[in-house]
Amino acid sequence: MSRRTLTRFAVPATLVTACALIASGCSSGDSGPNASAPSSFKTVAQINAHPVSDLKQGGNLNYPISQVVANYNYDDVNGASVDLNNIYEASMPTPEKADADGSVHTDTDYFTSIDSATVNGKFTVTYNINPKAKWSNGRPIDWTDLKANWNAQNGKDTTYEIAASNGYDQIESVVRGTNDQQAVVTYTKPRSTDLYLSGG
Q1: pLDDT per residue as tens digits for the range 5-30
Q2: Are the C-beta atoms of residues 142 and 129 closer than 8 Å to each other?
Q3: What is the C-alpha radius of gyration for the chain, rounded to an integer number of angstroms?
Q4: H or E, element range at 7
Q5: What are the structural domains, with CATH classification, of the chain?
């Protein structure tokens, strides 16, 4: 018999609600659609959504994991695990948001816009960083942060023990745009519509 380790995280109630909503969608032994379910279930998200004003501050979340997480840096070869990915998805910010219908859009708390174009024959992405976006120490997020992320994850510097360089190894350069809150990323070859490398 295996034992599951429960690790305790003190998190805001918003996170507790998010995890509860995710967990409520999981079940075992699915036998197909419920014949007695309302027909509206086919067209709307099946969650009990509430406005943020309904949430209470404080509380604890007991998050089940299958093993003790050895390294809380998901981008590190020793940190890339399913357990840490689940924790990250519930607690870490990302540059994109997904709506209930599955559509993905830029989180404007971090980027006012992310635009792609072909410039001088090369696929180029321009990240316009929200001037209000700051690190926890109060320093504004700027183009050098995206460059540092690329340098750490492109696989060229072996002092970084990265889990994978996917996408980052296709970047030719990350340079300052018109100001410190704009990063221009040039790729060695075209990419798909996934423009959110900066989050990983």
Answers
A1: 333 333 333 333 333 333 333 333 44
A2: yes
A3: 20
A4: strand 5-10
A5: 1-27+53-92 (no CATH), 104-199 (3.90.76.10)
At residue 168, φ and ψ (nearest 5 deg) are -65, -30
Position 94 pLDDT exceeds 70: yes
Token duo for residue 101: 């219908």
SS3 letters across 71-113:
CCCCCECCCCCHHHHHHHHHHCCCCEEECCCCCEEECCCCEEE
Q: At which residue do the structure tokens 């002092």 appear?
A: 159
Per-residue pLDDT reduced to its tens digit, 108-132 = 999 999 998 989 989 999 999 999 9
5: tokens are 């380790």
Task: Give the chain's end-to-end CA distance (angstroms, integer).
Answer: 36
| Lookup: tokens for 45 | 């998200």
Per residue in 33-72, pLDDT (tens digit) is: 566 666 665 566 667 778 889 988 888 878 788 888 888 8
